[in-house]
Write a structure and sequence with these properties.
The chain is α/β, with parallel strands linked by helices and about 375 residues long. The chain has 2 domains: about 120 residues, Aspartate Aminotransferase, domain 1, CATH 3.90.1150.10; about 190 residues, Type I PLP-dependent aspartate aminotransferase-like (Major domain) (Aspartate Aminotransferase, domain 2), CATH 3.40.640.10. The protein has 13 helices and 12 strands. Helix 7 links the parallel strand 5 and strand 6. Helix 1 packs antiparallel against helix 8. The longest helix is centred in the first third of the chain and has 21 residues.
Length: about 375
C-alpha cells in the first residue's frame, strides 16, 4: 500500500477516538434527548463533555458550541443563517476572499442570486489576503466578512489576528472557516472578535459526519442566525435532529487531544516537512504559497514541465497525494485558489498537494525524487 499523504482531505482516526466512538455506538447508545432514564442522561452528559472539549480549543463558552454534520454545514449555517437578519436590516453586502472553499463560495453565490452583493477579495501571489485590502471594500451595509483560517490547498494561514484588530470598530460579523486549522494553529482562533467558527471532525483525527459551529456572543447577544432545518429544537433551536452522540464524543476527544498534544504533533510535522524539502529541492520545484505562513503539514508544489496527473500516476504505488480539493476532485478542474493567486497556468496544472500528520509513516523521499526526475 502507498503511504497516505492526503490528510488535508481527511485524517486517519486516532485509535483513542475510535475506541470511544465504538463504545457509544455499542454500549452507551442512549438518546441525549431522553430525560427519563440513565441511558439518556449519560448520553447527555457525554455531549456536554464534548461541547466543553471543543470550546476549550478556541476559548469559547460551552453554550456557544453548536454541533453540525461538518464544516460544510457549519459554513452554510453561518452564512445562510444570517440571511433573514440581513434582509430585515438592509445590510446585504458580504465580503469574502477568492480562495475560500466551495462550502463558503457556493452559499454566497446563492445569496448573490437572491439580492445580496458579494465582494471577492483576491489574495497576493503568496496566497495570503492583505487585511487592509479587505478593509477597503467594507461598507456601511456590510453584514458579514468570511475569511478562512488556513487554505485547504496551499496550507497558507490567513492573517486572522490582524484582521480582527482592524475590524474591532466595525459591526460586521466575522466568520472563519477553520476546517483546516482548528486544533493545529491555536492562538488566532481564540480572538473574541471572531463571531463564527466552522469546525470539522475528520480533519483532526475524529470521525466523518460531525462538526461544529462556534457562535460567540457579543456581550449578551448571540449572532442572529436562523436555522436551516426545523423539527426538534435541538442545539438551541439552530440545528434540528437527534444528536449523533458517538460522533460528538469522537469530535470532543479529538479536540481535547489536539490541544494536549499540539506541540509534539507540530514538531513531528516540521521534521517530516524538512525531509521532503531536502529530497525534492534538488529538482528545483516551485513551492506555491507563503512558506513563512504555512501549516507545517502541507506542501503545494509544482515541477517544471510536469502535469500533476502524470506525477500522481507515476507515484501511485508509493504515496497517495492529490492535486486539489477533495470536494471537487471527482471532476478535476484547475485550482481556483492557485489561479486567484495569479500563478502561471503550467504551475497551476502541475500543482500537487502533499499533506501529512503525526501518524504518517516515513517515506523514502529520495526514491520519490528519482521517480519524478525520471519523468522530466
Amino acid at each position: 500500500m502507498p503511504v497516505y499523504l492526503d490528510c488535508n482531505a481527511t485524517t486517519p482516526m486516532d485509535p483513542r477516538v475510535r475506541e470511544e466512538v465504538v463504545r457509544f455506538m455499542d454500549l452507551e447508545f442512549g438518546n441525549a434527548g431522553s430525560r427519563t432514564h440513565q441511558f439518556g442522561q449519560r448520553a447527555k452528559q457525554a455531549v456536554q463533555r464534548a461541547r466543553d472539549q471543543v470550546a476549550a480549543v478556541v476559548h469559547a463558552s460551552t453554550e456557544e458550541v453548536v454541533f453540525t454534520s461538518g464544516a460544510t454545514e457549519s459554513d452554510n449555517l453561518a452564512i445562510l443563517g444570517l440571511r433573514t437578519f440581513g434582509e430585515r436590516t438592509g445590510r446585504k453586502h458580504i465580503v469574502t476572499t477568492a480562495i475560500e472553499h466551495k462550502a463558503v463560495l457556493e452559499p454566497l453565490s446563492y445569496l448573490g442570486a437572491h439580492g445580496f452583493d458579494i465582494t471577492l477579495v483576491p489574495p497576493s501571489s503568496t496566497g495570503r489576503i492583505e487585511p487592509r485590502t479587505l478593509m477597503r471594500v467594507l461598507r456601511s451595509d456590510t453584514l458579514l466578512v468570511s475569511v478562512m483560517h488556513a487554505n485547504n490547498e496551499t496550507g497558507v494561514v490567513q492573517p486572522i489576528k490582524e484582521l480582527c484588530e482592524l475590524l474591532s470598530e466595525y459591526p460586521a460579523y466575522l466568520h472563519v472557516d477553520a476546517a483546516q486549522g482548528f486544533g493545529k494553529e491555536i492562538d488566532s482562533l481564540r480572538n473574541r472578535r471572531i463571531d463564527l467558527i466552522s469546525v470539522s471532525g475528520h480533519k483532526i483525527y475524529g470521525p466523518k459526519g460531525i462538526g461544529a459551529l462556534v457562535t460567540r456572543r457579543r456581550g449578551y447577544d448571540r449572532p442572529p442566525l436562523e436555522p436551516l432545518t426545523y423539527g426538534g429544537g435541538q442545539e438551541r433551536g439552530l440545528r434540528a435532529g437527534t444528536l449523533p452522540v458517538p460522533l460528538i464524543v469522537g469530535l470532543g476527544i479529538a479536540a481535547e487531544l489536539a490541544l494536549k498534544e499540539h506541540d509534539q504533533r507540530e514538531e513531528f510535522c516540521r521534521k517530516y516537512r524538512n525531509a521532503i524539502l531536502q529530497a525534492l529541492s534538488p529538482l528545483n520545484p516551485t513551492f506555491n504559497g507563503d512558506s513563512g505562513h504555512t501549516l507545517p503539514h502541507v506542501l503545494n508544489i509544482s515541477f517544471s514541465g510536469l502535469d500533476s496527473e502524470a506525477v500522481m500516476l507515476a507515484l501511485k504505488d508509493v504515496v497517495a497525494i492529490s492535486n486539489g480539493s477533495a470536494c471537487t476532485s471527482q471532476n478535476y478542474s484547475p485550482s481556483h485558489v492557485l489561479r486567484a493567486m495569479g500563478l502561471q497556468e503550467d504551475v497551476v496544472r502541475g500543482a500537487l498537494r502533499i499533506s501529512w500528520c503525526h501518524m504518517t509513516e516515513q517515506v523514502d523521499w529520495n526514491h520519490v525524487g528519482s521517480i519524478i526526475k525520471g519523468l522530466c
